[in-house]
Amino acid sequence: MADPVAGPDAAAGPAGYDAIIIGAGISGMYQLHRLRELGMRVLVLEAGTGVGGTWYWNRYPGARFDSESYSYGYFFSKELLAEWDWTEHFSPQPETLRYLNHVADRFDLRRDIRFQSRVAAAHYQDATRDWDITVEDGSRFRARFLITAIGPLSAPTMPRIPGVETFQGEAYHTARWPHAPVSFAGKRVAVIGTGATGVQTIQEVAKTAGHLTVFQRTPNWCAPLHNSRIDADEMARIRARYPEIYQRCQETFACFMHTPDPRGTFEVSEDAREAFWEKLYAEPGFGIWQGNFRDMLTDRKANALVSDFVARKIRQRVKDPAVAEKLIPKNHGFGTRRVPLETRYYEVYNQDNVTLVDISETPIERITPTGIRTSGAEYAFDLIVYATGFDAVTGSFDRIDITGAGGKRLKDRWKQGPETYLGVMVDGFPNMMMLMGPHMALGNIPRSIEHNVEWVTDLMRHLRSRGVTRVEATPAGVTAWTDHVKSLGVGLLSNEVNSWMTGVNSNVDGKQVRIINRYSGSAPAYRAKCAEVAAGGYRDLALA
Ligand code: NAP
Predict the structure, then answer these.
(1) pTM higher than 0.85, yes or no?
(2) What Rg do the C-alpha atoms of the chain give, in angstroms?
(3) What tens digit of pLDDT does each residue of 444-458 get?
(4) Is 422:479 a contact under the CB 8 Å cutoff?
(5) Residues near ligand 1 (Cβ within 6 A)
(6) Rounded to an integer, what distance in angstroms lies between the CA atom of residue 340 and that of residue 310?
(7) 156 Cα: distance to centroid of ligand 1 (angstroms)
(8) pLDDT per residue over 232-279, tens digit each?
(9) Structural domain of 131
(10) Residue 145 domain flag
């Protein structure tokens, strides 16, 4: 039986809390901080036992940033920037989680976060203009505003392979990794999945596993991370450059330190092109993906050339030519899926204790009590790692029973793909704001988050100053924004490829058709549009 509706006492008014935020990851934590500054009564409901979101859940071996650490942290607090030292250019997960815990302590966030509180349902109440929110343990809460901070990559998916539940050894999904250390020493380990997560896991597990067998369905184009330590002197120099780093991330296409080169691939000579690509391949971070020629992701011939360059690198690095060919993607070009950054990933396949199984040739038929059976062989394992990804972008929404005005379900509304206003609101779902929801510019996510949170905070300030108790996107606004997002996706090679970025997940019913779930314009253009709406007094929204 459900608990009575919980929340501050009657003094708080019928709505209980002013706002409930779902999720205490990077966006939920910052939103809490900002709304408190407005004097709002805010509660965060968090499924985990601690803060950190992505960096709380994804504790798999080798997890780390692919963005430069000092471009990824929060920029909103000078004090925070002054006191936190990054120790590596691409921070490993334990350090990132320490950082986010430090932020929670520094801003005293925990007192308004209820942990172990996975939200099961959120129902808008037409009569009272508030949200009735139910946690899986049966507790219920009321709030005027519902803010989702549930992340685009937070609903993990297990593979739909018969027998998964029958395996008798250890088995972990990377996004539900145990808190206690997992040893691979001497064990027969399987990894299923070769996305950014699988790649990071594989290169780490291969160091100690007795034998590692990688089950690859689709190879991805990976490129070197080139991580290195940051000593105290270098950290001091980075700190001095924070204003410049921030400015750079504000100006680039996707908020990374890297941004497309203004030249077209065919505007330079073959020698200059090769030299440019060699330089990018030798540099740390996403330069080869985000800082490449401007037409790399729209011009098929340009994309084929850069793909050929990276294929040559793979052939040079993998000793067995047959294995190298299996590791080279054939059904999509470089950069059209999210590029995993790696550290000696390809060299792993030169090790005697590592085997690559191409399951596009010999599909997995079954997980057995002792291991994995493909159409070609039976393998025995002590431990299976599922690096099989997420029901991305809309998946975390689908897992909550969200109903809006008149009891309409969000899941039904988005059956053919998401429809939003600025990626923040949906008509028919009053008083609900999304952080990093569908149709948002993702890129270097914390930079997008800070903007997203600040825009929502400004909107809240506006509503409160006018005593508005109901805000809703208009159908016309949603149609216009959704059409705009779709038009931005036209001509992008990435939209011709199955991946989480196009909403395809073979393990989820109804997610086999490609959709446009991300804003693919530039971050500065997105911010300009949001600023225009605010400057216009939010007249595109229905306020009452
Ligand atoms: P992913 O990119 O979706 O990769 C999932 C992998 O599992 C793919 O190789 C997929 O094969 C395979 N797979 C799924 N279902 C399968 C099945 N039934 N049988 C066999 N193989 C199956 O997921 P991810 O690697 O977790 O990465 C998701 C995103 O998270 C990344 O793209 C990135 O944006 C983010 N991420 C970031 C970092 C970082 O910043 N450092 C690290 C990790 C992840 P197919 O390709 O054939 O579907």
Answers:
(1) yes
(2) 24
(3) 999 999 999 999 999
(4) no
(5) 64-66, 153, 159-161, 192-198, 200, 217-218, 338, 359, 387-390, 500, 506-507
(6) 13
(7) 10
(8) 999 999 999 999 999 999 999 999 999 999 999 999 999 999 999 999
(9) 17-51+109-155+392-471+500-521
(10) yes
